Amino acid sequence: MKTWLDAWPVFRQLTGSDPLGRGVAARSKATEQVVSRTATADRVVTSVCPYCAVGCGQRVFVKDEKIVQIEGDPDSPISRGRLCPKGSASKQLVTSPSRVTTVKYRRPYATDWEDLDLDTAMEMIADRVLDARAKGWQEQDAGRRVNRTMGVASLGGATLDNEENYLMKKLYSAMGAIQIENQARI
């Protein structure tokens, strides 16, 4: 006959076959019904942590097109499945209810910021890049043909990997920019 004492986890731990409390002694009806978020995911996407230049590998677990968990990728030669505290909390970067999803913009001479949707902001950026390219365009310099713009420059950050910097170099070169630098470390 079971008593209240048998249901007490500490008693089960001390008198049972699990003195460290890491197995049967720690189990309850509630824990038997718990299913991990990774077990119910529809798919797993590999990614890279966005926080620093190390480039730790991440596994992003997705269910119903929503991120349910982010963990370190054990197949990553860089981090071997480990993440720092910022990388471990990166799920909050995309799922937090306080995440900013609009672009803050203050028009010239305005005193207040306004929210713009991303499509509008991207169109404004594209228009300004093309305008800067056109205004700074040089066809010749001291009689030599150069076909370049001095109105656009790029400085890549350390969180960009070599492949991203390669693509940026191609993009800016195609636009005619010649002032292109980066500090890729991975």
TrEMBL record:
Pfam families, A to Z: Molybdop_Fe4S4
User: Which residue numbers delimit the 4Fe-4S Mo/W bis-MGD-type domain?
Assistant: 42-98
**Enzyme Commission code(s) on record:** 1.2.1.2
> What domain of life does the native source organism fall in?
Bacteria
> Which Gene3D superfamilies does this UniProt record tie to the protein?
3.40.50.740, ADC-like domains
Q: Where does it mainly reside?
A: other
Recorded GO CC terms? cell envelope
Q: Which family does it belong to?
A: Belongs to the prokaryotic molybdopterin-containing oxidoreductase family.
Protein name from the UniProt record:
Formate dehydrogenase, alpha subunit
Source species, please?
Answer: Modestobacter italicus (strain DSM 44449 / CECT 9708 / BC 501)
Q: Which gene encodes it?
A: fdhA1
